[in-house]
């Protein structure tokens, strides 16, 4: 019995030492490739620090993110928790869409920021009347530095740095109206932002108001997953609400207005001429 065991071990050892029946070569790299990571998606947790960490790490919840930025800590600098390696797929975007891409978990990095959103009793109020929790200055500094590093490392285009509400407008509203999109764009070079002088100029020029179909076409051109129904329906309102959350948070009505039209026009001129 012992002899047979030794013979088996010897066979396995010799097998492991045999050269592979092929030679791997990387002599001819293809030009048709890009980074797996094409999007950066920002969220708030709607929970406190402890609950956020449990929610994003315990298997029962089946949700995760690559990074978690806490809130209530005395540590300096603010710790940022990497929960999932960049190379792995985190479960943060859910049903999501941007341009022709759907199911963005596979092609994105997700960052969760601890923030409570708004009090439950405000749920029935219009979005711009809710008491949204602001982000702390320490969180904003960490968000800016981290997103700048990720955007540079993976060459993520400005129009693909997005809110969860941008890619799932009928389901989500995070990271909310206090998220510092303007500061990220102007001070860190992260994400899209319109030329503000151009927005002012557009508002001073008479322009015909867009009809429902034109709004849908222009929102879809920017990236929102809106169907061209020619009717100002709930999916259209949700897409415009998400747009306003991102670019005009002072009034999040989901209804067309001159300022939203000017902002969207300026964005399209800058990023999709």
UniProtKB/TrEMBL annotation:
It catalyses: Hydrolyzes the link between N-acetylmuramoyl residues and L-amino acid residues in certain cell-wall glycopeptides. PROSITE patterns: PROKAR_LIPOPROTEIN. It comes from Aeromonas salmonicida (strain A449). Keywords: Cell wall biogenesis/degradation, Hydrolase, Signal. Belongs to the N-acetylmuramoyl-L-alanine amidase 2 family. This is N-acetylmuramoyl-L-alanine amidase. GO terms for biological process: cell wall organization; peptidoglycan catabolic process; peptidoglycan turnover. GO terms for cellular component: outer membrane. InterPro entries: Amidase/PGRP_sf, Amidase_domain, NAMLAA_amidase_2, Peptidoglycan-bd-like, PGBD-like_sf, PGBDSf. PANTHER family: N-ACETYLMURAMOYL-L-ALANINE AMIDASE AMID. Residues 25-176 form the N-acetylmuramoyl-L-alanine amidase domain.
């Amino acid at each position: 019995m012992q002899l047979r065991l030794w013979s088996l071990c010897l066979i396995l050892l010799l097998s492991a030492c045999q050269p592979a029946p092929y030679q791997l070569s990387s002599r001819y790299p293809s030009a048709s490739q890009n980074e797996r990571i094409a999007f950066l998606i920002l969220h708030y947790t709607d929970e406190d620090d402890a609950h956020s960490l449990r929610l994003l790490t315990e298997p029962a919840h089946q949700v995760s993110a690559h990074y978690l930025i806490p809130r209530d800590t005395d540590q300096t600098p603010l710790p940022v928790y990497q929960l999932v390696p960049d190379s792995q797929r985190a479960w943060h975007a859910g049903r999501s869409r941007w341009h022709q891409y759907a199911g963005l978990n596979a092609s994105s990095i997700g960052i969760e920021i601890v923030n409570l959103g708004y009090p439950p009793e405000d749920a029935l109020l219009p979005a711009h009347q809710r008491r949204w929790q602001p982000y702390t200055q320490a969180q904003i500094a960490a968000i800016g530095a981290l997103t700048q590093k990720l955007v540079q490392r993976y060459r993520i285009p400005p129009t693909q740095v997005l809110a969860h509400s941008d890619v799932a407008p009928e389901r989500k509203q995070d990271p909310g109206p206090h998220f510092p999109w303007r500061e990220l764009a102007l001070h860190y070079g992260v994400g899209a932002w319109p030329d503000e002088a151009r927005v002012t100029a557009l508002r001073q020029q008479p322009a015909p108001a867009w009809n429902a179909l034109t709004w849908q076409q222009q929102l879809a051109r920017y990236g929102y997953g809106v169907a061209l129904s020619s009717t100002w329906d709930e999916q259209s309102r949700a897409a415009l609400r998400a747009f306003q959350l991102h670019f005009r948070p002072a009034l999040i009505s989901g209804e067309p207005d001159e300022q939203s039209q000017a902002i969207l026009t300026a964005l399209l001129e800058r990023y999709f001429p």
